[in-house]
Specification:
CATH architecture of the largest domain: 3-Layer(aba) Sandwich
CATH superfamily of the largest domain: P-loop containing nucleotide triphosphate hydrolases
Strand order of the largest sheet: 2-1-3-4-5
CATH class of the largest domain: Alpha Beta
Distance between the termini: 60 Å
Largest sheet: 5 strands, parallel
Number of domains: 3
Strand content: 5-15%
Number of helices: 19
Structural class: alpha/beta
């Protein structure tokens, strides 16, 4: 519930304001002077303080300084008598979020208060997102991940172009975040764009912007992502899906550090560090003619290849602890994995990599009712990879049947039922997959 502190020495004015503010469903505490308001501030936390500027004992500006000290996130609206313009200027100079001249319309005060509360929510959300960005660290102490950490430390302080490659779910965006956060541009903008998520006819405008009237529907000038990222960093995610025609324009940015908006006739200089990432084999794309060779080498000044999780399984326990702690904070549940559960996860190959592991940990941490998550609480296709003593058999045919069935199910789950992609994961042909599925159903 929204909590408001109202400080006004005029009783009639105070009661009138109280009734109007309380009608919003807000919890309103009212006091007759600044000293009483200070007592309340020491005992309670408020979203908003509305105070008269001239009160006995402690004036509004002095009270505001205490508000900023005790509760920096609380907004303050100061009320001042009509004509006291100097007071109004002092209000803003001393940190008031807003001021209102008496006499005023009650609806006007209400509108100002609601606007500030909305802005407050946005500030809180931004702070939460920033905190999440800061806390999104790269977890892993294996030899492979130590090499990645070392590369980030070496590359981050430079302005070199970086190409991050690796299978889907290996943490490419986290590496890009870490490079920007530890760079000399960390105070500048960090703009991310997914080249695969934007229609081909719109991506040029998204990247470079467009002038008014450049095409049908272009009613105003649009600033592109490169211009927004000036003096900062831009991440071009899924760069392998960038249309071939646009790759030449991106090459010009890398060579000349300038962009030209759609419909524009003058280039604009930009100072941007480019980080790109892809799950595709760009070298093969070059051979196939779908990616420019000159752009490939321009992007690959510093290559960082992220290993699939199956190649650094030693990091699984550490990753599980990290995710359990993260979700525990969000859900208010403290959970840990049993030794058997960890062993089962260590035997699973995670075709979806770290992202798949994170999703599994989130699921079991939410659904588990026990502080220690056991083997039986893991998804069936993972918990089933470790056979209990009563399941053990020496019959080779039966074991092969179970393993094949489990692998096929895992592959289909990972590809959303796409049999062609599942066959690729399994290393067999689509026809062979169909035949095995038919045999296993019999």
């Amino acid at each position: 519930m929204i909590r408001v502190l109202l400080a006004e020495d005029d009783e009639i004015m105070r009661i009138t304001l109280y009734d109007r503010l309380a009608a919003n469903g807000w919890k309103v505490d009212q006091v007759a002077d600044g000293k009483a308001a200070l007592v309340k501030l020491n005992d309670e936390k408020y979203h908003l303080v509305i105070s008269d500027i001239r009160m006995p004992g402690l004036d509004g500006i002095s009270l505001m300084s205490h508000v900023h000290r005790l509760s920096p996130g609380t907004e303050v609206i100061l009320m001042t008598a009509f004509g006291e313009v100097e007071d109004a200027v002092d209000c803003l100079k001393n940190g008031a979020a807003d001021y209102i001249l008496k006499p005023f319309d009650m609806d006007d005060l209400n509108i100002r208060a609601e606007r500030l509360l909305k802005q407050q929510k946005i500030k809180i959300k931004c702070a939460e997102l920033e905190e999440r960005f800061k806390s999104s660290k790269i977890v892993g102490s294996s030899i492979q991940m130590k090499e990645v950490h070392d590369l980030i430390s070496t590359v981050a302080p430079t302005d070199s172009t970086v190409l991050i490659t690796g299978e889907s779910g290996t943490g490419k965006e986290l590496v890009a975040n870490a490079i920007h956060k530890n760079s000399l541009r960390s105070e500048g903008p960090y703009i991310r764009i997914n080249c695969a998520a934007i229609p081909e006819n719109l991506i040029e405008s998204e990247l470079f912007g467009h002038e008014k009237g450049a095409f049908t529907g272009a009613e105003v000038r649009k600033t592109g992502k490169f211009e927004l990222a000036d003096r900062g960093t831009i991440l071009l995610d899924e760069i392998g899906d960038m249309p071939l025609a646009l790759q030449a324009k991106l090459l010009r940015v890398l060579q000349e550090y300038e962009i030209e908006p759609v419909g524009g006739n003058r280039p604009t200089q930009v100072d941007v560090r480019i980080i790109s990432s892809t799950a595709k084999d760009l070298a093969q794309s070059v051979k196939d003619g779908t990616f420019r060779e000159d752009l490939y080498y321009r992007l690959k000044v510093i290559p960082i290849e992220l290993p699939p999780l199956r190649d650094h399984k030693d990091d699984i326990p550490e990753l599980c602890d990290h995710f359990l702690l993260e979700f525990g904070r969000l859900n208010g549940k403290k959970r840990k994995l049993s030794r058997e559960a960890v062993d089962a996860l260590m035997q699973y190959n995670f075709p979806g990599n770290i992202r798949e592991l994170k999703n599994i940990v989130e699921r079991i941490s939410v659904l588990s009712k026990n502080p220690v998550i056991g083997l039986s609480e893991l998804p069936a296709d993972i918990g089933g990879t470790v056979l209990s003593s009563d399941q053990l058999t020496l019959n080779l045919s039966e074991n092969l049947h179970c393993v094949e069935k489990r692998c096929i199910k895992q592959a289909l789950d990972c590809t959303g039922g796409n049999k062609t992609e599942a066959a690729k994961l399994l290393g067999i042909s689509r026809k062979n997959l169909w035949e095995k599925m038919k045999q296993l159903e019999e």
